[in-house]
């Protein structure tokens, strides 16, 4: 089985690539090739199968076509401009998040339609949409059929990407699973341009011994998942039976609703009160204006009961998971 | 006040242009210029203000920019590839309905941002989305916050257009009102490529003395409005206060849910049993598969109570309205 990860040099893309390399197989089928595609060619990954690392722009149809060669059965489309950046640069967000997803659609479609067609089944496409495509805010607990009314350009572009891939699935051009990811914590490395960057920072920076700012009150609730869980969901979405999805390719996976206060308590339980003491209250209305519109909770019934997506582990396990998986590498990367 | 109608050579665009020419004003402000834009330059309209008629492709940014000159205060964006055609030609639907709407967004944005900017308020954009952007089918009665889960490419493209213009409104690039039009009956002229073409045909063709096919059962219900009502809604949307809309620029206007049987009874009441006898039952599963997913009813509370959209008139009045407004011209056009 041949797999492509678009945005394969990013946080979740690299993690998924390493997992596929370790497993050597997806479900009960051996992996025969992996393509990692990102703006800059991602660093190579040791694997029992050939790995191609390509650099290119997701909004460039030729580059995306090269990244999805004939015989590709699964495409994981993670390439995106994140929330605060898409808000600051409207055109960049449109180019990467909308035109990029259109290029993915057309490259996948060409595998089974037109001159490059091989007679194979339409490729599975796992697309990462986001909780940011919804409104509702702190008091919301959204049902599975909740309307996407985005309060930010990134969320609008993700909702558009879902509509495109959902319609392409109905047409038989590809076979999409659109996962609306919660805020993934704890993100390793440095703070990034996502408005939700602080949700990871308030746990990661203290574990590195560094002070950090909390821009929202401790009662502020966030819909979260761990990187371990996100990778499990990707593996499930890459192989699951999509017939039960019908027309509706959008999935709210079973994340966890947690207040910042509860996250800090988990930090304290794992790393002691001195870790928690590194977090300074520094209200930031600009950040709160963006993340404050995202819903803090979902019922996620369909993903849980019908579709077999696994449950999110506890906050303590998330903190522990970061220490096991990422703390040393993050220290090294940041020269700490 | 300067106004542009994109798709100004179509059914509703021409009707709106004639109405503006007759009124000479929009609300309490005189109209100082009107641009009609369509694939072929629309025929000129007699008016107390200058009318420019331009031909061009809505997916061509330069052509759209020319159609929306500096000083434009209201843009009515009606240019579209309709349902059955967008379903038959996926790329054409994407080009016209998605890239076209993106070109409209950028041309409007350039009026108040960047080098062409005049310091004026963001232009009002009235965009015609469609009932086809929803699912639900015959038994549905959709609330105002119902999710758009389109079962056809046209509906997906309309939902995408809404998301784009809604986000552009939030950013202050323009000021959109996205009206999800019901099926507009009675469409004059000839049958067209909309899957809903029959809903007009079963009334229009008998009034012309012609036989016609009914592809669905008489119990089949459709969410409809008249062309007179659509024009009233456009005039309202062109001038209304958009503050009460907030983030949510999508409007389900107060159409009417009617079964085909009730429409045929209205035909009979106005034009006699010999008119109704011209309608032959000829089930067409392909047509029913498309229109069968569209919801047959909406509550339309927000449009009615909060936003001041006027109520749809009765079925008899719709039939009568066609006879008054369109029967003679349709006869002439078709050489009957
Ligand atoms: N991490 C989260 O909390 C979270 C939450 C919701 C959704 N998501 C979505 O999940 C996906 C993966 O998230 P992540 O945290 O790994 O993000 P990331 O930013 O670490 O990775 C995204 C990758 O896309 C690449 N990219 C950006 N523009 C590109 C372009 N023009 N061409 C090619 N590649 C380009 C970036 O270089 C980056 O490596 C993204 O689509 C993101 O929007 C993430
Ligand atoms: N009439 C209905 O029942 C109905 C229902 C729901 C929504 N709508 C929407 O309302 C709008 C107006 O409807 P209508 O009945 O007047 O449609 P219409 O087809 O009569 O008019 C649309 C116009 O767009 C023009 N057009 C198509 N492609 C173009 C392109 N590439 N560049 C420039 N112009 C192009 C066509 O030439 C046509 O004149 C459309 O957007 C339609 O999707 C109509």
Automatic annotation (TrEMBL), chains A, B:
<dbReference type="GO" id="GO:0016491">
    <property type="term" value="F:oxidoreductase activity"/>
</dbReference>
<feature type="domain" description="NAD-dependent epimerase/dehydratase">
    <location>
        <begin position="3"/>
        <end position="209"/>
    </location>
</feature>
<keyword id="KW-0521">NADP</keyword>
<keyword id="KW-0119">Carbohydrate metabolism</keyword>
<dbReference type="InterPro" id="IPR036291">
    <property type="entry name" value="NAD(P)-bd_dom_sf"/>
</dbReference>
<dbReference type="InterPro" id="IPR001509">
    <property type="entry name" value="Epimerase_deHydtase"/>
</dbReference>
<dbReference type="Pfam" id="PF01370">
    <property type="entry name" value="Epimerase"/>
</dbReference>
<protein>
    <submittedName>
        <fullName>NAD-dependent epimerase/dehydratase family protein</fullName>
    </submittedName>
</protein>
<dbReference type="InterPro" id="IPR050005">
    <property type="entry name" value="DenD"/>
</dbReference>
